[in-house]
Design brief:
This protein has two domains: 74 residues; 73 residues, no CATH class. 71% of the residues lie in helices and 0% in strands. The chain contains nine helices and no strands.
Length: 168
């Protein structure tokens, strides 16, 4: 009886999805900007792990990014809309998740204006800057990614520059 129970538990544990390796996810995501192969690897990996809000957010972001690699304008827009919806659902599930807010901010900062996906830019930027200045981002890699992105794409004021300089 005990052996049978242990066997059932072992099988259930092996079949349950693993928690995502964030270091791998972040690395492949960064590579996905320039490599469709990396995007496809990450897409497959995210399908095999536990579907947390963060994983859903990355999946949505990837769908939007996938638009870069398809030719048909209709397919581009379809991918973008599906990804946007998935990312927004993930943010509604975890509205204080800094990494999800960062994903949305990063996408909204670089997508063309005609897609009309920029309504959260100001609030997301403020949220990220506050999270940095108040020391709420404990993951050093994530904090570095956010600071680096803000420096390049954030159109920071002198005051905002000073806020993130304190973090270094």
């Amino acid at each position: 009886m005990v052996k049978a129970l242990l066997f059932v538990l072992l099988i259930a544990f092996e079949q349950s999805p693993q928690v995502a390796n964030l270091k791998l996810v972040r690395s492949l995501y960064a590579q996905s900007v320039e490599s469709e192969e990396s995007l496809l690897k990450l897409e497959k990996y995210l399908g095999s792990v536990k579907q947390t809000s963060l994983v859903k957010g990355y999946r949505g972001s990837l769908k939007m990014m996938k638009a870069k690699y398809v030719i048909s304008p209709i397919q581009k827009l379809s991918n973008f809309k599906k990804g946007k919806a998935e990312l927004e659902i993930a943010i509604r599930e975890s509205p204080k998740d800094v990494e999800l807010i960062y994903l949305r901010y990063a996408i909204q900062s670089v997508v063309p204006a005609f897609l009309n996906y920029n309504s959260s830019l100001k609030t997301d930027k403020r949220f990220l800057l506050t999270s940095i200045s108040e020391g709420k981002i404990h993951d050093k890699e994530l904090r570095r990614n956010i600071v680096d992105f803000l420096r390049v794409h954030g159109k920071l004021t002198d005051l905002e520059q000073a806020e993130i300089r304190k973090d270094l």
